[in-house]
Design brief:
The complex is a heterotrimer of chains A (295), B (510) and C (372). By secondary structure, chain A is mainly alpha-helical. Chain A contains 13 helices and no strands. Chain A has one domain (19-284): ABC transporter involved in vitamin B12 uptake, BtuC (Orthogonal Bundle), CATH 1.10.3470. Chain B folds into three domains: 2-236, 3-Layer(aba) Sandwich (Rossmann fold); 254-341 and 428-505, Rossmann fold (3-Layer(aba) Sandwich); 351-412, no CATH class. In chain B, helix 8 (228-236) crosses helix 17 (498-505). The chains are: A mainly alpha (295), B alpha/beta (510), C mainly alpha (372). The interface between A and C is large, with 49 and 50 residues.
C-alpha cells in the first residue's frame, strides 16, 4: 500500500469514524463511571443536550472553543447535580429521575436560545475561526487513557467499582458509598457534557434543537455491549461509529436497482446488537451487582 | 488480659430486647465460642462489637480499656474484624482488590507489587498456603473465599477476629483446614470469637464458650470443664413458656390411618434457587397429627418447605417421591396443591406472604383469587371477601379490626393471624406451617397455637417448621430434627426432651 | 372522634396521600416553571392567561386540547398497566409509532376493504385491531425478553424505540410511501377510514373517539381492580416472591401486561391517523410516549387518575403551543421543562417525607402549646 492510498483510507474512513465516535466515547465513558458506582444512568441524553447548548453559547461568547468545551462539561455537571439530588438525596427512582432530567434538558435549551438568540431551539452559527479543528479527538484519546488508568489502577477506581459491585463491602471497609455515587454521577455529567460540546463545537457549527438525537442512549448501549469496562466500551463506540459513518456515506447512494440504499437498516444496527447482547447471558452476568439497588 | 469485655450491654429494637445486660469476657489470644439458638442474640452482640448497631446501654472494653464503637471504622481502629456469614466479597473483582479495599497500598495508584508481597508475607506467617491474589473471587471455592475474608482481616491488622457461623457452607475437610488455620492465628497472638450452633465444633476447637439465650447470657464455661449435655441444656433452657393448656384429642386407631402426605428419599442439590441441599429425606404425615420440624436455620428446612409447597418449581432439580393422598404430587403448583387441600403459612410473612401496600381484603385474596367463592364470572367478589375478612377479624381477634387497613401498618402478630386465617379459609386437610409465631407478641402466640391445635383435633395434619424448640415440644406429636440436609433424629412425644433434641440439632446422635 | 382528628386520620389513607403528593408535585413543577419564566422577563400571570385562553378560548381550542389529551391517555395507560406488574415501559414511543404505521397500512394490508363497499364498515375496527396488534407485539418483545432471559425492560424498550423509528421510516419511505408526495408519508387512507370530528370543535380533529377513550379507561380500571387477571398483575408488581409463593406466574404477568400496554400505545395511531392526518407522517408524535411516563407517574399507577393527569399534560402541550406566538421570550418547549420538574417533584419520595415530618413536628408543637 503506498502512501497516498493510506492517506485516502485515513481521510475517507478512519477520520470520519473517529469523528462520529468521539461524542459516543465521551458519553459512554461517563455512563460507565456512573453505572459502575451503582446508579442506572439513562440521563446521558439530557446531559449531552445541555452540554451541546452551553458549549456552543460560551464558544460564541468567548470566541474560544476550549473554554466553550469546558463549560459544556460544567453544564453537564450542573444537570447531573439535579439528577443526583433527586436520586441520592430524595430517593427518587433512578429511571424516573433520569427521564425527568432528559425532559428538563429538552425544555431548558430552547428556553435560553429564544432569550439569547431569538430562535426556537438553535444558536447562532459559530464562526470558523472559533471552531475546533481536531482538538476534541486528542482530548477524547486523553480521556480514554485517563479513564482506563483510573479505572484499573487507582484507589479511586477500585472504590468506585466496589460502590457498584458490593456497596456493603465498601461501607464496612470504612468508605462512604454515597460519596462514590455522587462522584460517579458528576463524572457522567461532565463527560456527557463534553460529548455534547463535541457535537455543537466540533462536529457542527451551532447548536440545533435536540441535536443529541439518541446518542446518549447509543452510548449507554455501548456501555452494556462493552460489559461496563473502559476499553471494550470504547471499542463498542467505535463499532457504532462505523455504522454511523457507513450510513452517512451511503446516504442517497444507489448500490443496486434504482433506489438508494435504505440507511434505516444500518441506523438501527447498534440498537439491534444491544438487544441481542442483552437477550444473551452477557447483559446479566456483567452488570455491576449492586446496580440500581438502594439500601 | 481480656481482649474484649462486654459490660452490661443492652440493645433494644422497639420494645424487643435483642441483648439484655450482656456481660462476658474474651481472654487475649484465645478461641472463644459464642453459642445459642436462632435469635438468641449472638449475632446482635457481635454487630454491637463491630459497630453496626451501637449499644443502647453498657460498655465495651478492648484490651482492658473502655472504648466507643459506633461505626465499623471504629471497630477497625481497635483492630476488631468480622467475617460475616454472607461473605463481603465482590465476585467479579480480584482477590487482591477485595482484600486491600479501603486500605490500599500506594498513594494514588495501587501498588500491587507491594500488596502482593504483604499478602504473601501474611500467607507465609500464618501458613495459609494461599497465593491466588489475581484471580476473581468467583473462581474460588467457598473454603478459599473464607480464607480470603480472614486474610482481609489480617491485612487490616485485626487482632480480634469474629467468625459468624464459619462452617455453615464448608465441607468437613474444609472445616478441618479452617480450624488448623485458626489455631495458627491464636498461636500468633490473635483472639478469635467463633459464633456457632454446632456443639461438637465448639467443644473441639475453643478454649472457652459463652452461651446465650433469649438475648441474655446464660453463662460462660471453660471448654475443658464442660460437655455436650451441659451446653445443650444451657442453650435450650428449661421449659418456661406457654404450655398448651387445651385438650389434645386423639382419634381412635391413628396407627392404621394412611399418611396424607408422604415424601420418600427426597434429594435436592444446592443451586442458585436453594442454598440448602436436602439428602435422602423421607417423612410421612398422618391425619390428626402435628409433626414438628426442628433444626437450626440453614439445615435444609427452607428447601423442604419450598419443595412441599411448590414441587413443580423443582421438577428437574430433585430426585425422590412426593405423594399427597397417595397420589404423586411432583408436578403440583401452589394453586393445584391448594385444590388438593394443602394450606400454607410461609416462612417469612413479609417477604412471601403479604402485599404490604394493600388492604386486608386484597391480601386475603392472595392465592384465593381463583376460588369460586371469590371469583364469579371473572369478577373478584371483594364484597364477599370483605365479609369473610370481617368474620376472620373477630374469629382470630385481628387488630385493628378494620378490613380496609394496609397490612404494612399492622403489627407482626396481627399480620400473622391474617396469613393463618387465609390459609385456613378453604378448610385444608394438610397445613404446612413455618414459624407461625416468629416476631409475634405473647397474647397472639396463644391464639395462634390454639388455632393450630384445633385443626389437629379436627383430624387435620400439620407440618410445623419452627425455630422455637419450646413451641415444637408444646404442639407436636412427633419431632423430626434436621441437620446438614438430613433427618438427624426423630422423637416421639413421650421422648421429648429439650436438651436431647438440642444436642441432635447440633449434630449429635439421639 | 372530632372532625379535625377524623380529617387527620383520612390524610393517612394511602390513596389520599398519593393524591396530595401528585397535586403538590404538579403545583410545585408549575410554580418553578413560572418562576423561570419570570427570570426571562415574562409575567407568570400573563403566561397562565395565555395557557388558559389557548386551551379553553374557543370550541376549536378545546377540541385541540382534547386531541392532545387523547394520545396521552393512551400512552399513560401503556406505561401504567405494565407498571402495575412492576415493569417500566419506556417504550410507548416505539409502540405507538409501529401502531400508527400499522393503522396507516390497513388499506394496503387488506385491499378488498377498499374495493368491496359491503366491507367498508369493517375498515375502522380492522385498522384499530391492526394498530393494537402492532403495538402489542412490539411491546411484548421486552416482556418476553424479561420473562425468559431476564433482560432489563428499561434498556430493551429504549433500544426498541429507536428500532421502531428506523422500521417505520423505512416503511414510510420505501414500502408504503405516497408516490405523489415529496415527503416521507404513507398513502392517504380512503374516506371510510376517517373518523368524523364534532362540528362544535370547528375543525379540531376530535369526535366520538373521546367517549370511547374515556370508556376504555374505565374498562381498564375495572379490569385491573376487579378481575383475577388484574389481581395477578398487581400481586406480581407489589411482591413478586409472595405472588409466586401463592402460585401466580410473574413471567405471564410481565408478558401479558407488556402486550396490552403496547397495544394501547398502538391505538394512538387510531387517534392520529384515522382522526387527523389520515396517513402516517414521520415525526407526528409530540413525544407522546415519553410524556406518557409523566402521565402515569403523576397518576401514581391509578388507572382512573390517568384522566386528570393526561388532561393536565394535554393542556400544557396545547397551551404551550401558543407561547411561541404570544410571548416574546417563551417557547412551546416550556412544557417539557415543567413536565420534567413535575416528574422530579412527584418522584422524590424523600422530599415528601422530609416535608411531612417537618409538618408533623410543627403540628405537635402547636398542639402542645394549646394543651400546655
Amino acid at each position: 500500500m503506498d502512501e497516498s492510498q493510506f492517506e485516502h483510507i485515513l481521510s475517507t474512513w478512519v477520520l470520519p469514524v473517529l469523528r462520529v465516535s468521539t461524542p459516543l466515547i465521551f458519553a459512554a465513558l461517563g455512563g460507565m463511571w456512573c453505572e459502575r458506582s451503582g446508579i442506572v444512568q439513562i440521563g446521558l441524553e439530557g446531559f449531552m443536550l445541555v452540554g451541546a447548548f452551553f458549549g456552543a453559547v460560551s464558544t460564541l461568547y468567548f470566541s474560544n472553543p476550549y473554554l466553550g468545551f469546558l463549560i459544556a462539561g460544567i453544564a453537564g455537571v450542573m444537570l447531573s447535580l439535579l439528577f443526583g439530588l433527586g436520586v441520592l438525596k430524595f430517593r427518587a427512582n433512578q429511571i424516573v429521575a433520569a427521564t425527568a432530567t432528559n425532559l428538563f434538558a429538552l425544555g431548558v435549551t430552547p428556553f435560553f436560545s429564544k432569550i439569547w438568540y431569538d430562535s426556537t431551539g438553535s444558536t447562532a452559527p459559530i464562526p470558523t475561526e472559533s471552531q475546533f479543528k481536531v482538538a476534541p479527538l486528542y482530548l477524547m484519546g486523553l480521556t480514554v487513557l485517563i479513564s482506563t488508568i483510573l479505572f484499573h489502577y487507582s484507589k479511586f477506581g477500585l472504590r468506585l467499582r466496589f460502590a457498584g459491585e458490593h456497596p456493603k463491602a465498601l461501607e464496612s471497609a470504612g468508605v462512604s458509598v454515597l460519596n462514590k455515587r455522587w462522584q460517579g454521577i458528576m463524572i457522567s455529567g461532565f463527560l456527557a457534557g463534553l460529548a455534547g460540546g463535541t457535537l455543537s463545537i466540533y462536529l457542527s457549527s451551532s447548536f440545533i434543537r435536540n441535536m443529541s438525537s439518541g446518542r446518549g442512549f447509543i452510548a449507554l448501549a455501548a456501555v452494556i455491549l462493552g460489559k461496563w469496562k473502559p476499553i471494550p466500551t470504547v471499542l463498542a463506540c467505535l463499532l457504532f461509529g462505523i455504522t454511523e459513518a457507513v450510513q452517512i456515506r451511503l446516504q442517497g447512494v444507489v448500490l443496486w436497482g434504482s433506489e438508494p440504499v435504505p440507511v434505516q437498516w444500518i441506523q438501527i444496527l447498534p440498537y439491534l446488537i444491544t438487544i441481542v447482547v442483552l437477550a444473551g447471558a452477557v447483559g446479566r452476568s456483567y452488570a455491576p451487582k449492586g446496580l440500581g439497588q438502594v439500601e | 488480659m481480656n481482649a474484649i469485655e462486654f459490660k452490661k450491654v443492652s440493645k433494644q429494637f422497639g420494645a424487643f430486647f435483642a441483648n439484655k445486660d450482656v456481660s462476658f469476657a474474651v481472654a487475649k489470644a484465645s478461641i472463644h465460642g459464642l453459642i445459642g439458638e436462632n435469635g438468641a442474640g449472638k449475632s446482635t452482640a457481635m454487630k454491637v462489637l463491630f459497630g453496626i448497631h451501637p449499644p443502647d446501654l453498657g460498655e465495651i472494653w478492648v484490651n482492658d480499656q473502655p472504648v466507643k464503637i459506633h461505626h465499623p471504622i471504629h471497630a477497625m481502629k481497635h483492630k476488631i474484624g468480622m467475617v460475616h456469614q454472607h461473605f463481603m466479597l465482590a465476585e467479579n473483582e480480584s482477590v487482591l482488590s477485595n482484600i486491600i479495599l479501603g486500605q490500599e497500598t500506594g498513594r494514588f495508584f495501587i501498588d500491587r507489587k507491594q500488596a502482593v508481597s504483604e499478602l504473601d508475607a501474611i500467607s507465609k506467617k500464618y501458613e495459609l498456603g494461599f497465593n491466588k491474589w489475581n484471580v476473581p473471587v468467583s473462581a474460588l471455592s467457598v473454603g478459599d473465599q473464607q480464607k480470603v475474608e480472614i486474610i482481609k482481616l489480617l491485612y487490616q491488622k485485626s487482632e480480634v477476629l469474629i467468625l459468624d457461623e464459619p462452617t455453615a457452607a464448608l465441607t468437613p475437610q474444609e472445616v478441618q483446614a479452617l480450624f488448623v488455620n485458626i489455631q495458627k492465628l491464636k498461636q500468633e497472638g490473635n483472639t478469635i470469637i467463633l459464633i456457632s450452633h454446632k456443639l461438637k465444633e465448639v467443644l473441639k476447637f475453643t478454649d472457652s464458650v459463652t452461651v446465650m439465650r433469649r438475648g441474655e447470657i446464660v453463662g460462660t464455661r471453660k471448654t475443658s470443664e464442660t460437655n455436650e449435655d451441659e451446653l445443650a441444656e444451657m442453650m435450650v433452657g428449661r421449659k418456661i413458656s406457654f404450655t398448651y393448656q387445651g385438650e389434645r384429642k386423639v382419634l381412635a386407631n391413628t396407627s392404621n390411618l394412611k399418611p396424607v402426605l408422604e415424601v420418600k428419599n427426597l434429594s435436592i442439590a444446592a443451586s442458585a434457587m436453594t442454598h440448602e441441599p436436602l439428602v435422602d429425606v423421607s417423612l410421612a404425615l398422618k391425619p390428626n397429627e402435628i409433626v414438628g420440624i426442628a433444626g437450626v436455620q440453614g439445615n435444609g428446612q427452607t428447601t423442604l418447605l419450598r419443595f412441599l409447597s411448590n414441587p413443580a418449581a423443582f421438577s428437574r432439580k430433585c430426585s425422590g417421591e412426593y405423594q399427597i393422598q397417595g397420589k404423586s404430587a411432583l408436578r403440583e403448583t401452589p394453586l393445584s396443591l391448594r385444590h388438593k387441600g394443602v394450606g400454607l403459612i410461609p416462612e417469612d410473612r413479609i417477604a412471601e406472604g403479604l402485599l404490604l401496600h394493600q388492604d386486608m381484603v386484597e391480601n386475603f385474596l392472595l392465592g384465593q383469587h381463583q376460588d369460586e367463592r371469590y371469583l364469579k364470572h371473572g369478577v373478584l367478589q371483594r364484597g364477599i371477601a370483605r365479609e369473610q375478612v370481617v368474620k376472620k377479624i373477630s374469629d382470630f381477634d385481628i387488630r385493628p379490626n378494620h378490613p380496609g387497613i394496609w397490612t404494612g401498618r399492622m403489627s407482626g402478630g396481627n399480620q400473622q393471624k391474617l396469613v393463618i386465617a387465609r390459609a385456613l379459609d378453604p378448610n385444608p386437610k394438610i397445613l404446612l406451617t413455618a414459624h407461625p409465631t416468629r416476631g409475634v407478641d405473647v397474647g397472639a402466640i396463644e391464639k395462634i397455637h390454639d388455632s393450630i391445635i384445633r385443626e389437629r383435633n379436627q383430624g387435620k395434619s400439620v407440618l410445623l417448621f419452627s425455630a422455637e424448640l419450646d413451641e415444637l415440644i408444646d404442639l407436636s406429636d412427633r419431632i423430626l430434627v434436621f441437620f446438614d440436609g438430613r433427618i438427624q433424629g426423630e422423637f416421639a412425644r413421650n421422648e421429648f426432651d429439650a436438651w436431647n433434641i438440642g444436642r441432635v440439632m447440633g449434630g449429635g446422635q439421639k | 372522634m372530632s372532625r379535625w382528628s377524623a380529617f387527620q386520620t383520612s390524610l393517612l389513607h394511602p390513596t389520599v396521600r398519593s393524591f396530595i403528593k401528585s397535586v403538590l408535585g404538579s403545583i410545585l413543577g408549575l410554580i418553578l416553571g413560572l418562576i423561570i419564566c419570570k427570570f426571562a422577563g415574562e409575567s407568570p400571570f400573563h403566561i397562565l392567561k395565555i395557557l388558559y385562553t389557548s386551551c379553553f378560548g374557543s370550541g376549536y381550542d378545546f377540541g385541540m386540547t382534547l386531541f392532545c389529551t387523547a394520545p396521552l391517555i393512551l400512552t399513560g395507560l401503556a406505561v401504567a398497566i405494565p407498571l402495575r406488574a412492576g415493569l417500566f415501559n419506556i417504550g410507548a414511543e416505539g409502540q405507538l409509532t409501529l401502531g400508527a404505521i400499522a393503522v396507516a397500512s390497513s388499506s394496503v394490508v387488506w385491499p378488498s376493504l377498499t374495493s368491496h363497499p359491503a366491507l367498508q364498515w369493517l375498515a375502522i375496527p380492522f385498522a384499530a385491531t391492526l394498530g393494537f396488534l402492532a403495538g402489542g407485539l412490539w411491546g411484548a418483545i421486552p416482556g418476553v425478553l424479561k420473562a425468559k432471559r431476564g433482560s432489563h425492560e428499561v434498556i430493551t424498550t429504549i433500544m426498541l424505540n429507536f428500532i421502531a423509528a428506523g422500521i417505520s421510516a423505512y416503511l414510510a419511505i420505501y414500502v408504503l410511501k405516497d408516490p405523489e408526495s415529496t415527503q416521507a408519508q404513507t398513502v392517504f387512507l380512503p374516506e371510510f377510514f376517517h373518523l368524523k370530528p364534532f362540528t362544535i370543535f370547528n375543525g379540531a380533529p376530535m369526535g366520538h373517539l373521546i367517549w370511547i377513550t374515556l370508556l376504555g379507561v374505565v374498562l381498564f380500571h375495572l379490569w385491573i381492580t376487579k378481575s383475577a387477571w388484574g389481581y395477578k398483575l398487581r400481586a406480581v408488581g407489589e411482591n413478586e416472591l409472595a405472588a409466586e409463593t401463592y402460585g401466580i406466574s410473574k413471567q405471564r404477568s410481565w408478558m401479558s401486561s407488556m402486550f396490552i400496554g403496547g397495544g394501547v400505545a398502538g391505538l394512538v395511531g387510531v387517534v392520529e391517523v384515522l382522526g387527523n392526518s389520515h396517513r402516517f407522517k414521520m415525526g407526528f408524535s409530540a413525544d407522546y410516549g415519553f410524556v406518557g411516563i409523566a402521565v402515569a407517574l403523576l397518576a401514581r399507577g391509578n388507572i382512573l387518575g390517568i384522566l386528570p393527569s393526561a388532561f393536565l399534560f394535554g393542556m400544557l402541550q396545547k397551551g404551550s403551543g401558543s407561547l411561541d406566538l404570544e410571548t416574546e421570550k417563551i417557547t412551546r418547549e416550556l412544557s417539557y421543562l415543567i413536565q420534567g420538574l413535575i416528574i422530579l417533584g412527584v418522584a422524590s419520595e424523600g422530599l415528601w417525607e422530609i416535608l411531612s415530618t417537618h409538618l408533623k413536628t410543627r403540628v405537635l408543637k402547636g398542639a402542645k402549646r394549646k394543651n400546655g
